[in-house]
Write a structure and sequence with these properties.
The chain is α+β, with helices and mostly antiparallel strands and 136 residues long. The protein has helices spanning 15-25, 77-97, 112-120, and strands at residues 6-9, 43-47, 51-58, 63-70, 102-104. It has a 5-stranded mixed β-sheet with strand order 1-2-3-4-5. The mean pLDDT is 91.
Length: 136
């Protein structure tokens, strides 16, 4: 029997855990940032017995954002689906509790299957483009 996937806010000192998840997935945001700086309360972590995924939420009224859904490879299909679902629903719930009436998120063109999933769940495409990152 599969253990339940729990979702919680990341603690201020857990940046290195998120960095490890990013690096395992091959996300380009993981390696060159200083993850030792205390985190703000805007990362959710999925775990069973250890962290297995995360998502960043940006609080906003009336629109919040979900970004950087990170689930490293190696999980079986069912567990991966559960982690993604639970992280996304927890992110939307958290944003709603803080006044967001809608949420935006970017889906990479390299992931058309994920785009179809979010559209089946009621999301509507509003723009296309490229997400950039720059150190400051």
């Amino acid at each position: 029997m599969q253990s339940p996937v729990s979702i919680r806010l990341a603690l201020a000192h857990e940046g290195p855990i998120i960095q490890q998840l990013c690096v395992k997935k091959g996300a380009r945001i993981g390696a060159w940032l200083n993850w030792e700086i205390p985190l703000a309360s805007n990362w959710l972590i999925a775990e069973i017995t250890q962290p297995i995924g995360c998502i960043m939420i940006n609080y906003g009224v009336p629109i919040g954002r979900m970004e950087f859904l990170i689930v490293p490879p190696g999980l079986d299909h069912k567990t991966r689906g559960t982690v993604v679902r639970n992280l996304c629903y927890a992110a939307m719930q958290t944003l709603s509790e803080h006044g967001s009436q809608a949420v935006t998120s970017m889906v990479s063109e390299a992931e058309p299957a994920w785009s179809r999933v979010v559209q089946r769940r009621g999301a509507v495409p509003i723009a296309t483009g490229t997400m950039f990152i720059k150190g400051i």
